[in-house]
Amino acid sequence: MAILESTRTARVEARIAPAALAVVRRAAELQGRSLSDFVVAAALKDAHQTIADAHIIRLSVDDQLRFAELLASPAPLAPAMQRALQARKRLIAESE
Length: 96
Known about the structure:
Helix content: 55-70%
Order of helices and strands: HHHH
Strand content: under 5%
């Protein structure tokens, strides 16, 4: 997901404990960044990770194998689903 660059900026304010601010300032200094740049970069990194975590399903190896087996050999359709498919076929055939 690309972030659109804009010439306009928005201001974000946050309260932070003095000890936490000292740590963040030190980290920004170590990276050669301004405090603002460091905080924005860290927030963006965390935001991207949070969004990815919400959209990506992670499965164990056993669950991956089970999922693949179910895709390769699906269970037979329930009678209600078979009737629904037949009804759909009839509706499509009638509309042609």
